[in-house]
Amino acid sequence: MTQRRVTIKQVAAEAGVSITTVSHVLNDVPGKRVHPDTRVRVEDAARRLGYVPNSLAQSLRTQRSNTIGFVGDEIATTPFAGKIILGAQDVALARDAVVFVVSTGYQREVENREIEELLRRQVDGILYASMYHRPVELPPQLASVPTVLINATCTGSGVPWVVPDEVAGGEDAADVLLTAGHRRLAFINDVDEIPAAFGREEGFRRRAARAGLHDDDLRVVTAETDPAGGYAAARQLLAHADRPTGIFCFNDRLAMGVYRAAAELGLRIPEDLSIVGFDNQEIVAEGVHPGLTTIELPHYEMGAWATEQLFDQIEAGPGARPAAPARKLRGPVIHRASVAPPSRGHDPGERREPSDLARQRQA
Amino acid sequence: MTQRRVTIKQVAAEAGVSITTVSHVLNDVPGKRVHPDTRVRVEDAARRLGYVPNSLAQSLRTQRSNTIGFVGDEIATTPFAGKIILGAQDVALARDAVVFVVSTGYQREVENREIEELLRRQVDGILYASMYHRPVELPPQLASVPTVLINATCTGSGVPWVVPDEVAGGEDAADVLLTAGHRRLAFINDVDEIPAAFGREEGFRRRAARAGLHDDDLRVVTAETDPAGGYAAARQLLAHADRPTGIFCFNDRLAMGVYRAAAELGLRIPEDLSIVGFDNQEIVAEGVHPGLTTIELPHYEMGAWATEQLFDQIEAGPGARPAAPARKLRGPVIHRASVAPPSRGHDPGERREPSDLARQRQA
DNA sequence: TTGTAAGCGTTATCAG
DNA sequence: CTGATAACGCTTACAA
């Protein structure tokens, strides 16, 4: 904003018309007819001068900034934020809007500060995103601004939200293992009591039950969601003779630890042990050997959906806030090389389960 | 921006003064004295009404938007973007500014579109960032806007830039290995001919030479910078009897591959083989076992420095653009468990090199 | 110490 | 079909 830019006034002068006319032609005002000749004159002038309308002035006048705010809890530590933001950005840009990004670091103090800064700038709406699926408390300042929650829910607030379909994810994971023929399964779940932990376990169990698995053929243990946690849990799980032949890990990092445990135990993946992860953190899922089959989290899609939703809300105006839409998005399973049929020694002649994956992608 | 917010006019009415006075007290205009009583009256009114100044109007008037744009090439695939943005955001917020984030996906088309969108919004300046250190071509539209390059250089443009100090990184890596007592070193470099590849090799060699290493005690090979590349290179490197006892890897992902090669060869890390990586991608450097000692890339710092720089440029005005400052930032070495003295079998009684790490952090 | 009024760059209403 | 002109919400000479 340092050097003065070309204004509509200069274009008008150059074209020898009034600024009104310039505005008319440049905005293609419906119902306003302008002579073809003057139209080209104006367009030429604008082009020649390199005129770019000043959004600030436009927004001031139209009460619409075509700008949205993205407030995330931690943008730097996980690779997730980028995908969500990209999804948001893509749909925003399609509407000539752009997005302010701020990161709170989980500090209420700075969150308030940042939201204030966004509001001051008259953002049309706000995307409030968590980096992991959880219930959140809505900052009070957002009560009167179009808002949608990403990876977060806030009961009673009437604010739309979108989260991953955890149950479906658990089902898909079980499905992958069952389809490969496994009949002795384990799930290393997150110790933390969060929606993802509940949902994935529910889905995993449900799908296993549907396949007729006995209770004692499905073990569920909990661990810290890092490689060390996975390692410890796997050592325990794999110590017994009737060890599981397929393990579903709460996330990919944790899965790294079970890879290590398996290696130490002389268990080959996938011949002796099949593993499925969660998150599809490319850097680990692709980096590990053999590649990790895993369930992807729909970050981009959540960002995109939320933004569509936000614009709908903005366009609907402050009037009726109809039943706030909410959505669970299912992520795809990414097949790599960590799943194979169980070796004969452990699961002789088991029949394969038919795949369930043909169900439609979105819950 | 949907519902009409409180304006300065309403505050004035509520306080029973003119809008001028409100402006004066709220902005603490220097040299303007206002009666203590009216000051509190105004402040009360503002608080009561929940007044928040409209930045758009302010900007229009003051020709300063307190807004900067961040254009990155890919924001979603690497975990780096988040850190750079966070650095930028932190210093921006300290100046009551906020940042628009856009990602180009390496497509000129969308880059132009996005930059236009930013300019239209009168950003005060632009941060142009690459996710890996490289020379770039400056989009022409940025020629007349305060700009600073992050992780990128553009010779002849006169635009300030900040990049990692690759040479120092290479030196530090060598230093870690030499200090541990290693005398047979290898560097698995990136096949791509990029500044990081040149710089790190230069630094690594220089430091090794300084330690008196012979040429044949330092092998340099190239590979794709992924686990597979590292694996292949390591297999080759470790096949010989006079294998290196310490390997420096161009990056952490590649290092994952050498971990695997070592495991297959029955070489223990760090007892039989020491490894140092680059990037400090926590998820792999911490996830791998034993933890990977690595050189961190100063993403946050680059983002922060660039933003300081940008504000300086903005405040200096469009007048003199003095010798554009440029900076190489050295990243810290993150010590974990992948480096130890070479085992006796291979390097009997070698003396330890004194550490070089005490040198100041910034080049 | 406080207020009037101009103007930042647009859009929109209403006359010509 | 085209053009004055009044907002939009704010800062800032300049007056009172």
The count of strands of chain A amounts to 12
N-to-C SSE series of chain A? HHHHEHEHEEEHEHEHEHEHEHEE
The quaternary state of the protein chains shown equals: homodimer
The DSSP helix count of chain A reads: 12
Largest sheet features of chain A: 6 strands, parallel
Strand line-up of the largest beta sheet of chain A: 2-1-3-4-5-11
**Biggest interface, CB < 8 A:** A-B, 71 and 71 residues
Overall average pLDDT of chain A: 91
Helix share, percent of chain A? 25-40%
Q: Kindly report how far apart the N and C termini of chain A lie.
A: 47 Å
Report on this structure.
The structure is a homodimer of 363-residue chains. Chain A is α/β, with parallel strands linked by helices and 363 residues long. The first copy, chain A, is built from 12 helices and 12 strands. The first copy, chain A, has helices at residues 8-15, 19-27, 36-49, 55-62, 80-93, 108-120, 166-179, 195-210, 227-239, 252-264, 282-285, 299-316, and strands at residues 67-72, 98-103, 125-135, 147-153, 161-164, 185-190, 218-223, 246-249, 274-279, 293-296, 326-329, 333-334. In chain A, strands 2-1-3-4-5-11 form a 6-stranded parallel sheet, sandwiched between helices. In chain A, helix 8 links the parallel strand 6 (185-190) and strand 7. In chain A, helix 1 packs across helix 3, helix 5 (80-93) crosses helix 12 and helix 9 crosses helix 10. The first copy, chain A, is elongated. The two termini of chain A are 47 Å apart. The structure holds a DNA duplex (16 and 16 nucleotides).
